[in-house]
Amino acid sequence: MLRRSRHLWQLLCVSLAISILCLRPLRALAGPSAGVLCAALLFAVLVSGFRYFRAKNAADDAWLAGRGREGEP
């Protein structure tokens, strides 16, 4: 699950970067709604990033907690 979430977040980040770099052609193609597309991508990046990093932190904490029990008799 974490791998899929990370890949989704990375894909959204790349899509956002490309949409910002190509904003002029997007405006010519889609008109004023090109800004809405960039804003929607930004929102998706923020939400998916928040969810991914929260899950990643929980998985890391669980792994560290389990590793601490390995050394106990």
Please, could you describe this protein's structure?
This protein is mostly helical and 73 residues long. It is rod-shaped and about 60 Å long. The two termini are 32 Å apart. The model has no long low-confidence stretch (mean pLDDT 91).
Any key phrases for this structure?
mainly alpha, 90% helix, 73 residues, 3 helices
Mean pLDDT: 91
Structural class estimated from helices and strands: mainly alpha
Low-confidence stretches: none
Q: In whole angstroms, how far apart are the ends?
A: 32 Å
Q: Describe the global form.
A: rod-shaped
Main sheet characteristics: none
Task: Please write out the topology.
Elements: H1 2-21, H2 23-30, H3 33-70
Helix pairs in contact: 1-3
Question: What would a concise description of this structure say?
Answer:
The chain is mostly helical. The protein is built from 3 helices and no strands.
